[in-house]
Amino acid sequence: MSESVSISPALMNRAIAGQADAQFEVAVLYMQSDFNEDIELAEQWALKAAANGHIEAMYWLGEGYTVYAKDVLEDDPEDAKQHFEDAFVWLKKASDAQHPAAILELAGYYRRGDVVEQDVARSVALVQQAAELGEVQAMRDLAFIYANALGVDADENKAEYWTQKADAAE
């Protein structure tokens, strides 16, 4: 039987005092638990950190809500829709702060038309933005997009450029 998460009093005091880094650290610790109550606390602390401007917490929430929404989509479309909307809000905030992985995840929302109007051109532009910020998966995606003419004209030179850039970054 696993135990609930143990958080040092010093860390908890900093989190309670409103320090965003400490709040996010508490969220990450709670997320490692097997207990539902701790998972709920993880979300609460991540929300506090994100509200205090912690960019990684914003991305973390957006990514987590996206995964959850996809998991429940078939069984509970209304719950999924709400989580997609919440995810979009947090991913947009992280994207506005130039978080490359958040920008790439946001691109998927525009590609699929999740809670926003489908916009393939916007999706490709976001993938390119994430790639230019150093997100290796975005570089690979962009190479694939250009190689297969997905929303853009096929361009072997750009496909090869992004493939080489991704290889060099790994």
From TrEMBL:
SUPFAM superfamilies listed in its UniProt record: HCP-like
Pfam families documented for this protein: Sel1 (PF08238)
Highest taxon listed in the record's lineage: Bacteria
Protein name, as recorded: Sel1 repeat family protein
Organism: Acinetobacter towneri
